[in-house]
Amino acid sequence: MDPSFEINRLGLARALDLLCEKSFPAPSELPDELNEAGIGEDATLEFLAPSVLGRAARLDAPHAFAHMDPPTPWISWATSQWNARLNQNLLHPAVAPFARDAERRVIQWLAPFFGMGGGHMTPGSTIANLTALWAARDITNAKRIIASDAAHISIPKAARILGLEFESVAVDANQRLEPNSLTGDLSSAILVLTAGTTSTGMVDPFELCGRAAWTHVDAAWAGALVFSNHHTARLTGIDRADSIAVSAHKWLFQPKEAALVFFRDEKRCHDAISFGSGYLAVPNIGILGSHGAVAVPLIATLLAWGRTGLAERIDRCMANAAILAHKLSDDPAWKLFGEPETGVVLFRPTAGTCKDIIARLPDGLVSTATVNGELWLRAVAANPNADIGVIQEALKNAVKKMPSGRKNSP
């Protein structure tokens, strides 16, 4: 037997020990060329840990508030390790009996929250959006896709791939799709609405559902608010869509790469995007061929937390965003873009520049977004462990260190 494919308790225990380390020596550079004989598994763990673990951004740090990338629960680490051990392939039922059932159950549990009939998992919302728009094109024979100026880049990408015309329409002052910009005959169009725009976190008006031949909602970021105890109403009307994409590796706190595409009429949509072959026991649905058991960490998280546990963490993130926005609005050193709708806070200094501020902040505290030609600091409430006190103190110190007499500019 080849020992590299057998259980190595000591090696796995060492990997866990390294995972729990808080500091590492300086990492060694990767060699320019592949080593002829290899250095062995044990030495590889010691060689890579300072780079893989030591150089990684800590998404669970108290100041981590920059991106739509959350920390992941430890149960997802454990079950991801199970997945790596088993290497299940959902393309073939014979080699993934439970993994396929896990995905069906996850969809069965979650689809009703969105008013959808079913769907499947994908590696991310870019693929989920493309999948939904593919089904929409083939079912409706649509010729174009319409989305707002604030839509995610995956939408024009999908239009290019699908050979459809892409039309970008205006947004209002808050970066929501402007309803009056939808004019003319939409009977040959697919309308894409966004629930949680990337730059500002705004939600397009769902009363527009049904105006076109098909309505798809890109809810990659804010879709998980349907599980919230306090913020579900922000997505009122999303159930009128024909399809919805949600990133599980955002507010469902899953490891990359995990997302869900939901359809109102699952059978009709899956039939439109399914292919059979002589080497397949069942039809292949959607874009992916071979794909792994990404539903296993998700179903483990949902079993562990339940809806209320998931909701509590989402609501904690939303509360953090509201607290930060309130503190910024009360401080004359800052200008707030507007009240955060889905946990995305945009702000900028009233003196000095955004770049000056970033240079004085810990890495991972803020990102940036350009809106209406202006650069803004962007804080995203994806981290339930964020400490607003720590973040506020860092921002206060950054302002104190700003050069005096500087006018506000990007």
Give the helix/strand layout:
Elements: H1 9-20, H2 41-52, H3 74-86, H4 97-110, E1 118-122, H5 125-140, E2 144-148, H6 154-162, E3 165-169, E4 189-194, E5 214-218, E6 243-247, E7 259-263, H7 266-272, E8 274-275, E9 284-285, H8 295-329, E10 334-336, E11 344-349, H9 354-359, E12 367-371, E13 374-380, H10 388-400
Parallel strand pairs: 2-3, 2-4, 4-5, 5-6
Antiparallel strand pairs: 1-7, 6-7, 8-9, 10-11, 11-13, 12-13
Helix pairs in contact: 1-2, 3-8, 4-8, 5-6, 5-7
Please provide a written account of the structure:
With 410 residues, the chain is of the alpha/beta class. It has 3 domains: 3-52, no CATH class; 74-304, 3-Layer(aba) Sandwich (Aspartate Aminotransferase, domain 2); 306-400, Aspartate Aminotransferase, domain 1 (Alpha-Beta Complex). The protein has 10 helices and 13 strands. It has helices at 9-20, 41-52, 74-86, 97-110, 125-140, 154-162, 266-272, 295-329, 354-359, 388-400, and strands at 118-122, 144-148, 165-169, 189-194, 214-218, 243-247, 259-263, 274-275, 284-285, 334-336, 344-349, 367-371, 374-380. The strands form 3 sheets. A 7-stranded mixed beta sheet has the order 1-7-6-5-4-2-3, sandwiched between helices. A 4-stranded antiparallel beta sheet has the order 10-11-13-12. Strands 8-9 form a two-stranded antiparallel ribbon. Helix 4 (97-110) packs parallel to helix 8 (295-329) and helix 5 (125-140) crosses helix 7. The termini are far apart. 40% of the residues are buried. Mean pLDDT is 95; it is low at 405-409.
